[in-house]
């Protein structure tokens, strides 16, 4: 069994966010990374830093999608039942549902729902792709504040050196 208090504490600590929304929506500190390593570092740091915003935006978009395509509620309910079945291993009518039984039944029901509600699945996958691309784009382009300031300072130094060199060549 899962301890309810411990689970609530874990969720609260996971969703806690110290980052102000101003920093999340600040488009002045965006840039395209020059190397794969820089892109990887930005994605990892921004996922941790902005996870509350990413989860919130995804939840809002999925809620709006559910309003447009109500059949999606069946898939959400199925996912919730699968998670519940794997966490608690319920017993119904004297039959204990192990995680193996829950996962197999979830797979079978998902296949039946996919055949029945094919357009909902395609639209949900398109929405999931849209959300994933949006989150990855944001995570890879937003720079950290200290790196932005150091980048601006180095740009100013390069500009000053260029101006000095330009004046020096004019005097020759």
Give a description of the structure.
It is a single chain. With 172 residues, the chain is an all-alpha fold. It has a domain of 28 residues. The chain is 78% helix and 2% strand. It has seven helices and two strands, in the order ααααββααα. Strands 1-2 form a two-stranded antiparallel sheet. Strand 1 and strand 2 form a beta hairpin. The longest helix has 33 residues. The protein is elongated, with a radius of gyration of 25 Å. About 3% of the residues have low confidence. It is found in: Membrane. This is PRA1 family protein.
Descriptors:
172 residues, mainly alpha, two-stranded antiparallel ribbon, 7 helices, 2 strands, 78% helix, elongated
Task: Outline the secondary-structure elements.
Blueprint: H1 4-15, H2 21-24, H3 36-68, H4 72-88, E1 91-92, E2 95-96, H5 99-116, H6 118-141, H7 145-170
Helix pairs in contact: 3-6, 4-5
């Amino acid at each position: 069994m899962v301890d309810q208090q411990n689970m609530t504490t874990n969720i609260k600590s996971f969703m806690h966010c110290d980052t102000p929304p101003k920093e999340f929506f600040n488009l002045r500190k965006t840039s395209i990374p020059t190397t794969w390593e820089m892109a990887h570092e930005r994605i990892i740091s921004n996922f941790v830093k902005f996870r509350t915003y990413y989860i919130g935006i995804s939840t809002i978009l999925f809620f709006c999608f559910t309003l447009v395509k109500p059949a999606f509620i069946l898939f959400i309910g199925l996912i919730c039942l699968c998670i519940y079945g794997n966490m608690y291993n319920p017993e119904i009518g004297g039959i204990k549902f192990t995680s193996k039984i829950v996962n197999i039944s979830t797979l079978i029901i998902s296949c039946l729902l996919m055949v029945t509600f094919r357009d909902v699945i395609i639209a949900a996958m398109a929405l999931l792709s849209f959300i994933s691309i949006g989150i990855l784009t944001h995570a890879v382009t937003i720079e950290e504040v200290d790196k932005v300031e150091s980048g601006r300072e180095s740009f100013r130094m390069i500009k000053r050196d260029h101006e000095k060199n330009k004046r020096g060549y004019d005097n020759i």
